[in-house]
Design goal:
InterPro entries: HPP (IPR007065), TM_HPP (IPR058581). By secondary structure, the protein is mainly alpha-helical. It is built from eight helices and no strands.
Length: 186
């Protein structure tokens, strides 16, 4: 026992959780999430692999997969709203590029700084979007093609790709009467 009367095990007891998991969503929600995810990613993929083929430009990055889960599968989440989608990705991309440019030969340090700073800045700007952490990391650990983009990375693939996915989310998520997206813009 510690002097304040709390057990040293109270820290670990916090890891038990306090409630049960939410109920399973209905089949309609699953179907519309699938349709949105499919259409969002295929649109970005089509542009990337067909329209931009033969150029040095890219539109597809891995963090868009996680964004798809949020903006098509968890549409009411504050983390899935347009401000968070666009702002979280773009801010994180700028931070990732900056960290890489300052520490190009220290990937572990640049990666850690990029992700941690992206989290802090997304919090500070009310744009928290978990895939943004991956976007900042990709700026550091990405290919030579990503590194050669410099700050253009924040506009394309990141900004434009997120905007394409947002447009698909606005169109698809508002088709069924049971869904409405977004909850808010600002």
């Amino acid at each position: 026992m510690k002097k304040d009367g709390r057990s040293k095990y109270s820290y670990f007891s916090k890891m038990k959780g306090t409630t049960k998991s939410p109920p399973r969503v209905n089949l309609s929600e699953i179907a519309w999430s699938w349709v949105g995810g499919f259409l969002g990613i295929i649109t970005v993929s089509y542009i990337n692999y067909n329209i931009l083929e033969g150029t040095d430009l890219i539109l597809m990055i891995g963090s868009f997969g996680a964004s798809a889960v949020l903006i098509y599968g968890a549409i009411k989440s504050p983390l899935a709203q347009p401000r968070n989608l666009i702002g979280g990705h773009v801010i994180s991309a700028i931070i990732g590029v900056t960290c890489y440019q300052i520490f190009p030969d220290q990937v572990a340090l640049a990666s850690s700084l990029a992700v941690a700073t992206a989290i802090a800045m997304m919090h500070a700007t009310k744009t928290l979007h978990p895939p943004g952490g991956a976007t900042s990391l990709i700026a550091v650990i990405g290919s030579t093609k990503i590194h050669s983009l410099g700050y253009l990375y924040a506009l394309m693939p990141v900004g434009l790709g997120a905007l394409v996915m947002l447009i698909v989310a606005l169109l698809v998520n508002n088709i069924p009467k049971s869904r409405r997206y977004p909850e808010y813009w600002l």
